[in-house]
Amino acid sequence: MTDSASLGQAISHAITSGGSVHDTESAPNIFAVPRDGELTQIAPGIFWGRLPLHYAPHHVNIYVLDDGDAWLVVDTGVDSTASRESWLSLISGPLASKPITRILVTHWHNDHLGMAGWLARRTGATLLISDEEHQRGASQADQPRQARDARERSYLLAHGAALPVLDRWLAEGFQNMSLISPLPETYIPIGPRDPVKVGKRTFQILPLSGHSPLASGLHCSEDHIFICGDQLSDRLVPPVAVMSDQPDANPYAGFIASMNLIRRSIPEDTLILPGHEEPFRGVAAALARQATKHTEVCNRLLKAAHEPQSAGELVPQLSRSDPGSTWFGFVVSRVVAYAHLLLAWGHLSRVVTDGRIYFTTTLTEEIEISRFLPTTETETTP
C-alpha cells in the first residue's frame, strides 16, 4: 500500500475495543480495518471508522477528529437501520467520553450525507458542508419520488435505456440515492481554502468537483494529512456521471481540474484518508491510475462509436460485467459524462433522432493520458 518504513515513522497504530483505544506497537505499519462500532487510530487525534452499505463496496469510511473537549465527525454513512445501530454503538462506546459538536460532510452522496441530519438531531451537532453539496443533497432528499422517477425515466430513455432494466433501476437502485435523512434547518457553509480548526490542527478546504458539484477535501499541510472523500483512492477509480437533473453538464471538466489541483497541492508523502478502501500514501500513483483508466475508457468509446450509438448501447465499453438494477442508470450516466467530455474535445458529435440521443466519432485520434494529467504547468481542460 505504501512505503512501510515511512508509514511506521509517521503514524502510530491503534485499535478500539470495548470503548477504549489501545496503541498497537507490534504492527506499526498496518492499519487494522475497524469493525462495526469500533475505531482505528491512524494518527494522533484522528480515528477511522466504517459503516455498512447494502450495496457495493459494502462500506463507507468515516473519520473522527479529536477537537479537545469534543469530537468532529467527517461523513456519516447512508440513512439506514444498520447505520443508526453503528452510530449508537460508537456514541455509547469509543465516543462516549465527550460530545460530537460538529459534523463535516465532504459531499452530498447518500453514503456520506445520509445520516448527517439524524446524527445532528441526536447530538445537537452543527453541520458543515459546501453550499453546492447541501443544495444537491436537499434536492435529492426532498423532491417527491414520483417527480424524481419521471425525470430519471425520461433522461435514461433518451439515452437508449431498455425498458425492462430501466424499470428495475427505478424500483431498486435509483432509490438508494435518496437515502438521506432530513437535513438540519441550519448549517455552516464551507468554501475553498476556508480554515477548519480541529484541536491543535488546522485543515484547509480543498475544493474538489466532478464526482460531485463541490466536495470539500481537508488538508492539514503541517501533519501531511488529506481527507479526500471519494476524489482519490488507492484502488478504486471515482465515478463521474451526468445526472438527470443536470443533463447537459460536463462534470469531467471540473474533475480534471481537481485532479491537477490535488497534484499541485498535496505532497507525495501525505497520508490520504479516502471515503472507501484503506488509508494510503502515494498521490502520484493514485492520480496516474485514474488518468490511465479514464484514457482507456475514452478510447474504447471512440472505437465503438464509429457508427452512431446511444449511451445505453455503449455501456459494455464502460462496464464489462452486467451492472444490474443496482447500478444500471448510474453506469449509463457515466457513459454520458465521458461522451460530453469527448464532445467538448471535438472527438464526438451528437445527433438526436426521434427523441433519442446518439453519439458518433468525428475525430479518431486516440486520447492520451496528458489530457487528464498534463506534463506541463499549462492545464489542459475542456
UniProtKB/TrEMBL annotation:
Keyword Amino-acid biosynthesis appears in the UniProt entry: no
Domain of life: Bacteria
Gene3D superfamilies (UniProt xref): Ribonuclease Z/Hydroxyacylglutathione hydrolase-like (3.60.15.10)
UniProtKB keywords: Hydrolase
SUPFAM superfamilies: Metallo-hydrolase/oxidoreductase
Pfam families: Lactamase_B
Key word Ribosomal protein present: no
A GO MF term: hydrolase activity
Residue ranges of every copy of the Metallo-beta-lactamase domain listed in the record: 59-276
InterPro entries attached to this UniProt entry: Metallo-B-lactamas, NDM-1-like, RibonucZ/Hydroxyglut_hydro
Protein name: MBL fold metallo-hydrolase
Organism: Cryobacterium gelidum
